[in-house]
Amino acid sequence: MTRIGIIGGTGWLGSAIARRGIAEGVIDPARLWLSSRSPTEVPQGAHWTDDNATLIAESDLVVLSVRPAQFRQMQIDLQGRPALSVMAGVSATEIARATVTARIIRALPNAMADSGMSWTPYWATDQAEAPEIALTQSLFTACGTAERVEDEAQIDYAAALTGSGTAFPALFAQAMIDHAIAQGMPEDRAARAVLHLLTAASQQLQQGGESPAQVVKAFTDYAGTTAAGLNAMKAAGFTEAVHAGLSAAAEAAKP
Ligand SMILES: NC(=O)C1=CN([C@@H]2O[C@H](COP(=O)(O)OP(=O)(O)OC[C@H]3O[C@@H](n4cnc5c(N)ncnc54)[C@H](O)[C@@H]3O)[C@@H](O)[C@H]2O)C=CC1
Ligand SMILES: O=C(O)[C@@H]1CCC=N1
């Protein structure tokens, strides 16, 4: 198995990738090195260091999983080894300059990697080679579903749409819960009701064969209570609010 090093490997995302990779048999813990500021969350059998040069020497593929501002303060030389970046808003050009490699893959998972449910797009430079591309596909299949995309701009946009996206349904859920509480429903029941609803509705959208647009149209045409709610939400600027949020996230994710 390929020797893998994860810089930032005990952080939120880095540790999720390590755990899922080991659990799904893509990573051999004996061939895994993690670096970070402190040795928490090190899987059994894996190696930890606070020295990135040691990690690089022990790795055939180096995953970059530090925050963008932390990356901009790092001095590393991959000496031509492939880099797999999960950083939002750090371009391949910037990575190449800072790490001395042209073999770069950029992937954009989300916080659901930990539970094996991330949709992860990835993009590779022309210099990236088949083994690291295949390993990227396997690593992010271990974290959910992986999909190669044709151009780097799609990775930057994915940081907003799906990379940040796990918190957007949470915002919608909280808005519904707050409304139910204001109508007198006990908080725990409101949370149960709304989370059950959103889980069931998501599963239905995945498996039911109807697109989101078809579901909205069917209920609008029915002209009952749901239509009253949908029409009022749209009139109050629901779509515009969602688009403004995605645009702001996309702007923040621009290299
Ligand atoms: N958390 C998420 O849901 C997602 C995160 N990302 C990207 O993943 C990257 C990592 O994010 P998180 O895991 O959330 O951050 P985090 O703050 O949880 O983890 C960062 C890790 O890097 C370590 N670190 C900092 N400076 C270092 C250095 N010089 N050398 C070695 N290790 C160092 C820290 O000790 C920490 O363990 C970010 O660039 C972010 O944009 C992308 C998609 C989703
Ligand atoms: O919120 C963030 O900055 C990170 C990167 C993309 C998703 N989460």
TrEMBL record:
Keywords: Amino-acid biosynthesis, Cytoplasm, NADP, Oxidoreductase, Proline biosynthesis. NADPH binds at N52. It is found in: Cytoplasm. Residues 152-254 form the Pyrroline-5-carboxylate reductase dimerisation domain. It comes from the Bacteria. Its EC number is 1.5.1.2. GO terms for biological process: L-proline biosynthetic process. NADP(+) binds at I7, G8, G9, T10, G11, W12, L13, S36. It is an enzyme of class 1 (oxidoreductase). InterPro entries: 6-PGluconate_DH-like_C_sf (IPR008927), NAD(P)-bd_dom_sf (IPR036291), P5C_Rdtase_cat_N (IPR028939), P5CR_dimer (IPR029036), Pyrroline-COOH_reductase (IPR000304). Residues 3-84 form the Pyrroline-5-carboxylate reductase catalytic N-terminal domain. Pathway: Amino-acid biosynthesis; L-proline biosynthesis; L-proline from L-glutamate 5-semialdehyde: step 1/1. It catalyses: L-proline + NADP(+) = (S)-1-pyrroline-5-carboxylate + NADPH + 2 H(+); L-proline + NAD(+) = (S)-1-pyrroline-5-carboxylate + NADH + 2 H(+). GO terms for cellular component: cytoplasm. GO terms for molecular function: pyrroline-5-carboxylate reductase activity. Belongs to the pyrroline-5-carboxylate reductase family. Catalyzes the reduction of 1-pyrroline-5-carboxylate (PCA) to L-proline. This is Pyrroline-5-carboxylate reductase. It comes from Paracoccus caeni. The gene is proC.
